[in-house]
Amino acid sequence: EDQVTQSPEALRLQEGESSSLNCSYTVSGLRGLFWYRQDPGKGPEFLFTLYSAGEEKEKERLKATLTKKESFLHITAPKPEDSATYLCAVQAGSSNTGKLIFGQGTTLQVKP
Amino acid sequence: DAGVTQSPTHLIKTRGQQVTLRCSPKSGHDTVSWYQQALGQGPQFIFQYYEEEERQRGNFPDRFSGHQFPNYSSELNVNALLLGDSALYLCASSHLRNEQFFGPGTRLTVL
After folding, report:
1. CB contact, 8 Å: B3 with chain A?
2. I need a surface site. Which of A11, A51, A76, B76 has the fewest CB within 10 A?
3. Cβ of B104 under 8 Å from any chain A Cβ?
């Protein structure tokens, strides 16, 4: 069964304290792995798509990497405005519709 | 360019009632997917519409149904509401199987 597990569930950082969020997955043929940011009560905001092991994508203080079994979202020198829930989702290659299978998310709090 | 829009923003219903949620996709997108997100959980796939047909369905009962119109907009209908249907309902649009962009969601509360 296709599955996504994110860790930790919650993370508290001081402003400027870099860290990483983990997304482990089991899927029958990965077509794509997606990272989203979600603010409370709002819809997820698209951040990155990764397609193959070894691929990396960067956007401001965020960098996403992908291996054959997991993905990491590295946050460098975070600011309070980076506080949000970060969701990881996979798209199985066998799916003819590209439905997304999500993890439960990591809630990040960055304190000034 | 307007992104994905959803209406209404919030909705309160009682058990047994029926509800219709609406979604307009991002310009240039032809595929609409619906997700249910319970508090503290990741979104769960309900179904996806492309070319006005349901293409794939998640593990949701037949009380959940949908429709896609020729202009690619979509509706999600839920009949015989249960307390457990209270959640944030998210619509996502895409071009075929490419990146999905989400709307702001509709918060449904069932009393």
Report:
1. no
2. A51
3. yes
